[in-house]
Amino acid sequence: MYAAKASRASHHTRLALAACAGAVLITGIAGIAAAQSGGRRGGGNNGAAAAQSGGRRGGGNNGIPAAQSGGRLGGGSDGPGFTVNPFPHRTGDADSGRGVFRFETFGNEGFWTDAVRLPQGMMAARFTPLDALKLGLNVDADALPRATRAALARELRTDLTRRNAPMLNNPRAMDELINANAIIGMVARDTNGDGRLDIRSGDKVGVSCAICHSITNGSVFDPRSELMGGVGSRLDGRTTHSIDVGGLFALGANSRALYPDLQLELGGGTIGRAPRGLNANSTEAEVDAYFRNKAFYPRGLFDDTPDGVGNPIQNTPLFRTDLSAPYGTAGEHVLPDNFANAVYTLLLDMTTLVTPEGREFLRIKAGAAGEELADGYAKVLQETGVTGFPFVQASTGFRIGDPASPAGRRVDNRKLLDMNAYTDSLQAPQGARVNMASARRGRELFRARCTSCHNVDQGRFVPPLLIAPSTIFPAYNPEVIATRMPPQSPVQNSPGTFDDKFVVIDASDRGDPRGNALTLLLDLNRKPQFLHDASVPSLGRLLDPARGRTSPHPFYISDVQQRADVLAFLRSLDTGS
């Protein structure tokens, strides 16, 4: 959703360790000093209500001042010093929110069953429970009858061949797992109204938040690998690093219905990891090849902006959301309910984009390229016989382009607030057991080197900063592709994959600049790769100066022992550290 002049690669979600030292820190207030003294970032009486309706964070046109330092920042501090969280959010009932998080689809089963035709594709491929685990899907053992659970446990201890694991290799057993709502995040609905769940008898399958943000405790099967899903009791809020989203999408009998999530050829160019973009005439086989290519759509990543840019990013946790605003790689949402509404109305039912409101949203965001995307998508839907959309049940009439309702639609607000309460309540996992002497040394190094951006105490709210692209990525050299109406920033792209996530989507909707939001430094020991584009294969590599001065996040610790101490500290972190 951009008019690219040439084929370029670039990308982005929220970083783990986004700018440990010497940085240009950007805030949405009238300066860092105001925030450190406890001033609210909205200014005046803007408050949460203004943010709920998409109010500008900076208030008026206050500009975005930058604090610069060419030397070492932090100076032994415990963090940037913010004392008041500028982004409080409303909450509802956490118990009800658990059901929303796990099972609510708001009607998107129509999209996944009637448009993408995912269950039909699974059946045609004779997809089995073993295939599901290999695709990184997780199984809720508590949803299964005891005999089924015991059989799975027994077979998972074998060599997994058809002879020794007949249930795991049986496509009908996969049906049973879906009908039992045991495949976490894949939700069966009694859409034919006969009082039972059976996807071979007309019932449909939708998708909930849990598919990317829940794992299991591995009590029945712990793969001890990020290449397979697990079987056990649910652990909500934790990142599903194992899931092969692209492989799952390619199973759809009509994966072309996921057109906005592809890397497209728009305006004569393409942006993303692939050398060439797809278009409305691309075949099902070409679409499936893109989704299955791990160089284009890596495991554990999800392209969460339906903008025609090939920018899959790492899945992130959804625990302690009371501490982690703003949300999204570029900090594009200050409220978690707005973030969730965008997911439900734009990502989990992409056909919203070809409604009149969706087309206007694309026009606001990308001008002619947005209109081209909508026209191409409408062509695909017509050719593949998709009708009756949009599928997600949402109220209409809201302001288009508002963060609370990007395409003028909003799902049940009470349920969104209930989910806020639930994800706020989800606790982060305990930190890893490490050598405590090493971790203590690492803590002091972290205080001296990294606290211009990050807090030492992960039980505090994330510093509400946006890190300038040129700081987090010294090679950032963007080309302006298109201008937009203020306060939106221009559509712009730099070589490489690091900035692809915010080529189109950033925090400028509310008057804030383009930049990277920070994240809680939690559950790092389980994380298999780092930076939002998964471009760094380990935490140790992230801090290793061998990556080079112009690589993303060039904040290194040269001494090998000191680096090991900082790694021990980071891996030990939890909210009680």
Summarize the structure.
This protein has 577 residues and is α+β, with helices and mostly antiparallel strands. It is 29% helix and 7% strand. The strands form 7 sheets. A 4-stranded antiparallel beta sheet has the order 2-1-13-16. A two-stranded parallel ribbon has the order 3-7.
General description of the model:
The protein has 577 residues and is α+β, with helices and mostly antiparallel strands. The chain has a domain at 117-236. Helix content is 29%, strand content 7%. The protein has 18 helices and 16 strands. The protein has helices at 32-36, 47-52, 94-103, 109-115, 118-124, 129-134, 146-155, 171-179, 210-213, 245-250, 284-292, 336-347, 356-383, 413-425, 436-449, 469-472, 539-542, 560-572, and strands at residues 25-26, 66-67, 139-140, 186-189, 204-207, 214-216, 231-232, 234-236, 301-302, 313-314, 395-396, 409-410, 466-467, 479-482, 491-493, 516-517. A 4-stranded antiparallel sheet has the order 2-1-13-16. A hairpin with an 8-residue loop joins strand 14 (479-482) and strand 15 (491-493). Helix 3 (94-103) crosses helix 14, helix 12 (336-347) packs across helix 14 (413-425) and helix 15 crosses helix 18 (560-572). The longest helix has 28 residues, at 356-383. The two termini are 43 Å apart. Mean pLDDT is 89; it is low at 1-75.
